[in-house]
């Protein structure tokens, strides 16, 4: 089955460009378009996409509020890929904190766009670049520190979280730590559950905001 994508951007040219790039791939199908976040909820219910590629800045409802609305109201919600002009953007970080699963620069090359959609759809690796790591570290807070302390991660779970933060897939983590892939999946699930994180992005945000991982450090 192809990866189905809903495009949400107030710029028709951006939507047309993304559609052309994605539909050139045999494993990706664009199933709908919207010009504002306010239209996302009914469209998601209608076309049931695997991934919503959503602009972070739109006139009526921005990507942050639209992300919150999707995750709050849609059962079994799609993965959300934020589309942005600048990676060092509080709006982008806000969308990721709200539950988005990754981000895509509008100036990205076609191969990078396709890769981003596949990564987010699979959910087994991470789109979290250095600029956003620095933002996360700068947002250190007591809530994240408390969540990390209460999680009481084992040494192995801490190793897995650091590997997740580096963007490694389960298979790559397994190879690095000399574990089975299923064992890694179990550890990842345990880390997410202990941190109360919806997905890898939320877990990594907590890791940085709590100081468990520091920006610029060798994770």
TrEMBL record:
SUPFAM superfamilies associated with the record: C-terminal effector domain of the bipartite response regulators, CheY-like
InterPro entries in the cross-refs: CheY-like_superfamily, NreC/VraR/RcsB-like_REC, Sig_transdc_resp-reg_C-effctor, Sig_transdc_resp-reg_receiver, Tscrpt_reg_LuxR_C, WalR-like
A Pfam family this chain is assigned to: GerE
UniProt domain Response regulatory: residue ranges: 4-121
Chain ranges of the HTH luxR-type domain: 146-211
Sites bearing 4-aspartylphosphate, chain numbering: 55
Alphabetic keyword roster: DNA-binding, Phosphoprotein, Transcription, Transcription regulation
Stated name of the protein: Response regulator transcription factor
């Amino acid at each position: 089955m192809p990866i189905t994508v809903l495009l949400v951007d107030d710029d028709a040219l951006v939507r047309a460009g993304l559609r052309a790039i994605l539909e050139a791939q045999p494993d990706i199908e664009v199933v709908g378009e919207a010009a504002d976040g306010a239209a996302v909820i009914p469209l998601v219910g209608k076309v049931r996409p695997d991934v919503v590629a959503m602009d972070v800045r739109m006139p009526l409802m921005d990507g942050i509020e639209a992300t919150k609305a999707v995750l709050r109201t849609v059962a079994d919600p799609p993965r959300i890929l934020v589309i942005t002009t600048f990676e060092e953007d509080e709006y982008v970080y806000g969308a990721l904190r709200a539950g988005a699963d990754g981000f895509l620069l509008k100036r990205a090359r076609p191969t990078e766009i396709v890769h981003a959609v596949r990564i987010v759809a699979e959910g087994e690796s991470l789109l979290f670049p250095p600029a956003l790591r620095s933002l996360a570290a700068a947002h250190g807070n007591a809530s994240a520190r408390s969540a990390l302390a209460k999680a009481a991660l084992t040494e192995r779970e801490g190793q897995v979280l650091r590997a997740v933060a580096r963007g490694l897939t389960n298979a790559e983590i397994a190879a690095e730590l000399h574990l089975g892939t299923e064992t890694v999946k179990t550890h990842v699930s345990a880390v997410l559950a202990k941190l109360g994180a919806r997905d890898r992005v939320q877990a990594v945000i907590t890791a940085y905001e709590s100081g468990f991982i520091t920006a610029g450090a060798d994770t």
